[in-house]
Amino acid sequence: MIEIQALTKYYGARRVVGPISISIAKGEIVGLLGLNGAGKTTTLRILACDLLPSSGSVRVDGLDVVDNPDEVRARVGYLPDAPPLYDEMTVGEYLVFAARLRGLGQEDAEARVEEVLVSTQLDRVRDDVISTLSHGFRQRVGIAQAVVHRPRLLVLDEPISGLDPVQIVEMRELVRNLRHHHTTIISSHILSEISETCDRILVIRDGEIVAAGTEAELSSRLVEGAEVVVTVRGDAGQAKRLLASVKGVTAVEPVDATEPGADISSFRVEAERDVRQELCRALVLGDVALLGIAKNDRELESIFLRLAQPESKNGAEVQA
Amino acid sequence: MRNALLIAQREFRSYFRSPLGSIVAAVMLLLEGLLFQVGAMGGQGAGKAKLSAEVLSDFFYYTSGVTMIGAIALSMRLIAHEREKGTLILINTAPVKDREIVLGKFLALFTFLFGVTALTAYMPALIFVNGRVSVGHILVGYLGILLIGGAAVAIGLFASAFARTQVIAAVLGAAVLGVLLLLWMAAKVADAPVNNFLLSLAIHHERQRSFMLGTLRLENILYYVGVIYFFLLAATKTLEARRWR
Lengths: 320, 245
What we know:
The complex is a heterodimer of chains A (320) and B (245). Chain A is 38% helix and 28% strand. Chain A has twelve helices and 14 strands. In chain A, strands 6-7-8-3-9-10 form a six-stranded mixed β-sheet, sandwiched between helices. Chain A has a four-stranded antiparallel β-sheet with strand order 2-1-4-5, covered by helices on one side. In chain A, strand 12 and strand 13 (264-271) form a beta hairpin. In chain A, helix 3 packs across helix 4. The radius of gyration of chain A is 24 Å and the shape is globular. The two termini of chain A are 43 Å apart. By secondary structure, chain B is an all-alpha fold. Helices cover 81% and strands 0% of the residues of chain B. In chain B, helix 3 runs antiparallel to helix 7. The two termini of chain B are 27 Å apart. At the A-B interface, helix 2 and helix 3 of A face helix 1 and helix 5 of B.
């Protein structure tokens, strides 16, 4: 679907992207993860044919972005970090305009807009002027304009930026639903968005892809062992002994209980690998009530920081 | 052309959905009316009567100035405003050629100015009814207004494509137009053949005078068409270059 070979982009003498070589298969949802200024937006703008590459090749459906920009643009739907909305238009008018701009005829555009209004849950604000919409609805209109012409590739730059928690959940659901119809690339510096929505993560730093894979792959490659938090009710001493007896566990440390209540205690368990299954079995067989067990949330955070931060900072962190 | 018309249609409608278009149109019509009353019709009561044709010529003189100012005031936002608001990327990532973007923007503002200029028709009509002027003089004068208006829009559009902000676009557009306006003064102090060359580039002086007097000259029409084409081409190339920046 997408083939990027030795892509670079320079602003003057400064290299902001590349060299990047990746390929993305049809139907994949790929997350582009990086800190601000890492080169995410520039890469996406090249894919959307807004900018042209300085060197290398980018092909979408076999079409080169330099040689066939209009054909590529017709296949790509792009949501920039700030939705490109004309405030004076109504939602319906705007989407018809966006659809027609992407080559749909008037009747086809109107019919398609009806479908998109429903799929993005915008039908109740169809006749509202865009300037009156909340931030969440503006993001939805931004996504709607990106999918209105049935693109094969959907490029979303920070789609949940600035949304409240309810809107974030709704937006994730919306993006997941789009996977049936589009290959999708989502950029973000928000880890949870990438890990929960995407099939594969590309970590970008200083314009280069420094790691690629699923969350589990990145985790196993970069985090030494695994860390889980276990919450139990009952004899804390016995629970600690049972946890420590599991093969592969390297340390068990009591931590603040994750929930209130009598006889409830929590432990941080460090192990050479993911031992959650064995820990559960040991506690149940030892007659200790298991209330909760979860991978430490900081794990992905740690992967991200190791990969995305400049090398000098990484070195300092590792030494520390 | 389909895309250009689509862009023009949206842009044209936007003038009526924000106060800006109405305000600029109202100010232009007010100025043109005042200048017609005070400037073109003025002096008639002081025992120095003007011929109808002179009044009409003066009307076109003032109207051409107001049209240029209105063109620069509105053209600064054509692309720079979209860039500032982040909406240009919608058009840039659609299968639309840069020349279609430029043409669409030009058509929208040119049509708007055409409409505002048409609303001044009651003034020459008053002269036509109460004095003796030819319809041809009126039509040629209006053609001159539209051509110089179109040239000012093209210059402003180029400035808007080039500049990052509307303010810079306005300053740049006004500067380019100002230089083209004042070239006749430079021609006065230059020697031949440079003076003739400078005079031939001046956008208003001799060029517009022939239209104001009701004289249609092909060379003058070609000059304005050439200016419009040159600056629209420059705007297109500027947009193309920004993708490579």
